[in-house]
Task: inverse folding
């Protein structure tokens, strides 16, 4: 083997090994994050964390019960806004629309998807907080729901489009009207994909912090109704992490573990639903 | 095709011999019309919301746009007490942290994408891609949490002193090691955007036709040469697309940056010094902004951020679409 060839082979092996190292390093970051959170959060998590209100500043102990409930309420509102608009909008795009309208809607959705989350917060502030004159669960839910729309819309549309035309034609040949075809044939055929899309959108906004800072704001107590400022897990993590109290740091780790656990579980479930065989083969 | 079927049913003029069947038909068609209108309403609301967002950002920032004009971007005094607002330090911080993050994330991300697309067996590749998708799902506040308690101490104790000792003659690595600052924010951002680069680049690389690889190998190139000189250039536009996507993410990222950048509106050549970014200043000061001009200046910063990410995302999409259309083959050599 001449030296030139030997050198080229060496470079080839070296660089290919290096790409492998890149991949391993990146993936190991995930396990590092998980391990660190489990280690730190696991030791600070307790029953109190889920059941108690935050302790007054300066005292140790207490929990984040209000933030957990606040997050749940915010996510419920977000889903009520984001899922219907995303779902029905996607049906319009996949089944009814002409190409111009579809382009406009898709373009708007992609644009909305790319908007930094902090800007969504500004928007929700101007649209909901200012008219009502105070921070509220409503405003936070609106901001999060807004972020769910484009994710749900675009992936649902894709899964609806993956339903083969033969199914549509078959239904119509049997005399079904269009809406009946959609409701009884097309949506059921794509339901796994649609469920995955909704779950992923949910997981994405569950961890969003920036849009909540000046919409849901924060609260150290329970937030009755929908029109009061409310605590939420992500914002609590932020406030507690940058605060100077050791005990708050401990609780931030616990909250981080709970939040990340929830998000990863939803992600894994969503992907499992999809990979258990899509009901429809790609056309 | 199905649309054709639908229209023929709707326009069939009194095809049924019995009157009852005609009303039945028209009722069905009405149902379709209602379904179309309802779904149209939802679809249009997406467009309306987006327009409203742009309108509100524009309208909400009228005061500083008129008062400061272009000086808003050129001056660096940010003084709410005297109503002086110049955004230069924030723009600088945003750009510098994004640049640092790309310097780290691009080589790592593309390297990993090459491994996943070209080298790893399909099973391994899919498994790793699954983990990388999970990594992309980790919320930014968690990255911030780890940044505050792991990266900052690490930077202060080891990395910054180390860099100062070895590369201290460069202006980038001078000054006291606070731990927080541009470099720390850039590193945390890099970790956050790598998954986007990997996922998109991998897809693009996989869409390069198989014969490109085979031709290169047949001409006697090594595996790496085939990859680096043939496959990667073929997928170049898409890879750039993934980088733009990552850049847009990095510019708009709020929480993690706010927690580690130091929140000091200063411009400094040293990457060790604390700074500020557009998103971070909005996050920190929006709720305490007193006075219309102050609040509207923050909204104008939001508008800047919006426009930057809008342009970058558009470019990214164009590039990615162009590449995946160019090579439709799914191939591994």
Result:
């Amino acid at each position: 083997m001449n030296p030139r060839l030997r050198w080229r082979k060496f470079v080839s092996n070296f660089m290919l090994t290096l790409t492998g190292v890149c991949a391993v390093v990146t993936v190991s970051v995930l396990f590092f994050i998980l391990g660190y959170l489990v280690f730190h959060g696991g030791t600070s998590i307790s029953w109190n964390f889920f059941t108690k209100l935050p302790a007054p500043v300066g005292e140790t102990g207490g929990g984040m019960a209000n933030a957990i409930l606040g997050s749940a309420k915010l996510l419920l509102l977000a889903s009520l806004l984001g899922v219907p608009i995303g779902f029905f909008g996607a049906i319009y795009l996949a089944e009814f629309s002409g190409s111009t309208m579809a382009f406009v809607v898709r373009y708007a959705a992609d644009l909305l998807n790319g908007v930094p989350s902090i800007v969504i917060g500004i928007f929700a502030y101007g649209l909901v907080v200012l008219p009502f004159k105070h921070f509220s669960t409503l405003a936070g839910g609106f901001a999060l729901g807004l972020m769910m729309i484009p994710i749900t819309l675009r992936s649902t549309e894709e899964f609806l489009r993956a339903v083969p035309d033969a199914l549509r034609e078959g239904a119509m040949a049997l005399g079904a009207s269009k809406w009946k075809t959609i409701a009884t044939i097309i949506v059921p055929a794509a339901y796994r994909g649609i469920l995955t899309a909704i779950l992923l959108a949910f997981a994405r906004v569950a961890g969003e912090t920036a849009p909540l800072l000046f919409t849901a704001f924060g609260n150290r107590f329970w937030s009755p109704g929908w029109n009061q400022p409310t605590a939420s897990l992500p914002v609590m993590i932020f406030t507690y992490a940058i605060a100077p109290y050791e005990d708050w740091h401990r609780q931030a780790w616990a909250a981080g573990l709970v939040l990340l656990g929830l998000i990863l579980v939803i992600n894994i479930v969503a992907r499992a639903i999809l990979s258990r065989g899509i009901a429809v083969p790609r056309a | 095709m199905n649309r054709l079927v639908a229209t023929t049913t709707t326009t069939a003029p009194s095809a049924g011999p019995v009157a009852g069947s005609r009303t039945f038909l028209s009722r069905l068609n009405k149902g379709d019309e209602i379904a179309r209108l309802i779904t149209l309403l939802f679809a249009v609301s997406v467009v309306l919301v987006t327009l409203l967002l742009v309108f509100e950002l524009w309208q909400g920032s009228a005061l500083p746009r008129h008062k400061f004009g272009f000086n808003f971007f050129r001056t660096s005094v940010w003084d709410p007490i005297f109503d002086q607002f110049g955004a230069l330090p924030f723009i600088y911080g945003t750009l510098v942290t994004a640049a640092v993050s790309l310097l780290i994330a691009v080589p790592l991300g593309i390297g990993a994408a090459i491994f996943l697309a070209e080298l790893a067996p399909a099973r391994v590749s899919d498994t790793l891609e699954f983990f990388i998708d999970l990594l992309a799902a980790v919320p930014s506040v968690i990255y911030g949490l780890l940044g505050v308690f792991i990266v900052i101490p690490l930077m202060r104790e080891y990395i910054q002193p180390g860099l100062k000792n070895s590369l201290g003659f460069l202006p980038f690595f001078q000054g006291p090691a606070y731990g927080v600052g541009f470099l720390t924010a850039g590193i945390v951002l890099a970790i956050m955007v790598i998954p986007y680069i990997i996922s998109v680049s991998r897809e693009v690389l996989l869409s390069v036709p198989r014969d490109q690889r085979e031709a290169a190998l047949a001409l006697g190139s090594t595996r790496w040469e085939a990859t680096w000189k043939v496959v990667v250039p073929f997928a170049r536009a898409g890879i750039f697309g993934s980088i733009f996507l990552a850049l847009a993410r990095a510019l708009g990222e709020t929480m993690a940056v706010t927690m580690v950048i130091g929140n000091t509106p200063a411009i400094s050549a040293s990457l060790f010094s604390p700074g500020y970014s557009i998103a971070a200043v909005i996050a920190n000061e929006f709720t305490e902004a007193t006075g219309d001009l102050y609040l509207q200046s923050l909204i104008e910063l939001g508008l800047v951020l919006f426009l930057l990410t809008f342009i970058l995302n558009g470019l990214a999409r164009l590039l990615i679409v162009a590449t995946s259309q160019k090579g439709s083959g799914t191939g591994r050599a």
Notes: Residues 3-44 of chain A form the longest helix (42 residues). The CA atoms of residues 33 and 97 of chain A lie 44 Å apart. Chain A has a mean pLDDT of 91.
